[in-house]
Each structure stands twice: as C-alpha cells, then as structure tokens.
Amino acid sequence: ADINLQEVHDFMIEIARKVGERITSATPSTGAAGSKKNSVDLVTETDQAVEKIISTSLHEKYPSFSFMGEETYKPGDKLTDAPTFILDPIDGTTNFVHRHPYVAISLGLAINQIPTIGIVYNPFTQTLYSGIKGHGSYLTQYLLTPQEKKQRLPLYPPTPLETLNTCLVAVEWGSDRSDNDFRVKSSTFARLAAADGGMVHGLRSLGSAALNLCAVAAGEIDVYWEAGCWAWDVCAGWVVLGEAGGRVVDANPGNWEPRVDERRYLAVRGGEGQEGLIEEFWGLVDGRFEVG
Ligand code: IPD
C-alpha cells in the first residue's frame, strides 16, 4: 500500500518532541544498564526507557512496519526491505552522561533499505532537523519566534568546495578504539591537522553522529568522517544531508554508494567541487577501516 510519508514524518516529530522532556528531565544514570562492549560504550537507563516509549508508540500507529533500535538490536539482526523505523533514542550518550547538551533523538524510516524520512531532534536546544526524501530538509528552532522558526537547509548558499585546506572537518573517535581502527583514525587525524600535507581549518567532534550529519547538511561543517557508526546513528541524518545537497560515501576509498548499515562513512556538504573533495579526502586516509 502507498505510505503517506508526510503523515509518518509528522508523527515521528510529534513523538520525538514528547519524549524529549523525558531526556531533559532525567538524571543520567548508567545504573543497571552500564556499558555495552567496553568502558567507553555507555548506555543509560534513559536510553532504554526512551527506546521503549518510542517503539511502542510507533508500533501502535504503524503495526506493519519493522523496527530496529540501538538498545534492542541483537547481533545478526538484519535490515530488510520492509518499511523500518531505525532509532537511536539518545545519540550522544556520552555527552548526555556528562551533561553536555549535545544530544539527539535520531529517528529514521528506511524503505527498501533506503533512508527515506529523517528526524534528528535535540531536546535540550529544542532544535529539529527533518526531511523526507525528495522533499527537502529543514531546521526548526522551537525556541525562536515563529517567523524565524523553520528554515530550509542548507542555511546559506553553498560556496565551492575547493580543497581540504579550506574545510572545517568533523571526525569522531567513537567507542571502537582498538588495533587497526585506532591506527587508521589517529594517523588520519594527524594528517588532517598537520602543517605539511594535512591542513584543514579545524577538527571538530560534536559527539553525536546524527548531529554531525545535520551540521554538514546545514553547511556549518564541510566534511565528516567516521567508522564504527550503526544504522541508527546515520539513517535519519543521511536523509537530512541528502536533501540539502550533501553526499554520503564510504569512508574507505572506492565505494560511492554505501549502505545504511555499512558502518563507515564520509559525508560532504553540497557545493561545487564535492567529488574532487571526496577524492582528496580519500587520498589522505592512512589505511583501511575493517569494522565488523
Ligand atoms: C555514538 C555517537 C558518537 C559516535 C559513535 C556513535 P551513541 O552514538 O554518535 O558521536 O562517534 O560512533 O555510536 O552511542 O551515543 O548512541
């Protein structure tokens, strides 16, 4: 049956707005939840509670849709072609634990494994990034006056992307910091920062993959590179970025069409010179990620 994407999009926003209060009023506690695979891969009771509330509401309204969520994912679960809500209840859990208000509910809908609707909502700043594939993406700031509230992305006409040495670049350490992945990350960061050969204007780590993608969509960050992300970190932000003229490709050189569950991503904002910049970035990556 035909899916009314606008209606689904509006419902996803409604839930995110409602559940946002649950996040801002919580005292972050890892309590029984603790860490997942190592001491820096944190999960709080709020992550789990928020996922439960959202998945229950989605299931009541759209019982035939599938669901994949960070807190209920089991190794081996596969994304299928069915319409699937993909949720990270708190993207930026480490920020949340430390009371750094750079946190988002990242809720996407994939159809045929293609990111189709994206909602990225920061409940602390009451800032929403949202988009529907083929219909543009927007920034809504609920705390501003009505006239200023909703803006189409990107926020400014994109200037040409000439070379990396004029870029502001986001990277993340993520929670996977072992062996080869650590080596590829640290040595690539060093190359980006170095005076000889590297040389970007600055490196940023916002601590939320979803918000990094939205910052690239807005045009506030030129490039974002990370390996180790999961489908729920990227599905929603991918739609927002794609609708703003941005591109997502594999973080390793070679694959221009990565899948939503591929786990290695290079995102570049819209603007003339996008392809050349991707090639330049790939030339700087020191080795290959082999995330499982
Ligand atoms: C993490 C954040 C972080 C990124 C990790 C993600 P979580 O999500 O987005 O910025 O570096 O790769 O897993 O664990 O806070 O939901």
UniProtKB/TrEMBL annotation:
Q: Which coenzyme or cofactor does it need?
A: Mg(2+)
Keywords, in A-Z order: Hydrolase, Magnesium, Metal-binding
Its UniProt pathway annotation is: Polyol metabolism; myo-inositol biosynthesis; myo-inositol from D-glucose 6-phosphate: step 2/2
One of its GO biological process terms is: inositol biosynthetic process
Q: Where does Mg(2+) bind?
A: E70, D88, I90, D91, D233
- Reaction equation(s) it catalyzes: a myo-inositol phosphate + H2O = myo-inositol + phosphate
Q: Which Pfam families match?
A: Inositol_P (PF00459)
Q: What is its EC number?
A: 3.1.3.25
Q: Where is the signal peptide?
A: none
A GO term, aspect molecular function: metal ion binding
The answer to whether UniProt assigns keyword GTP-binding to this entry is no
Family as reported in the entry's similarity comment: Belongs to the inositol monophosphatase superfamily.
Instruction: Name it.
Output: Inositol-1-monophosphatase
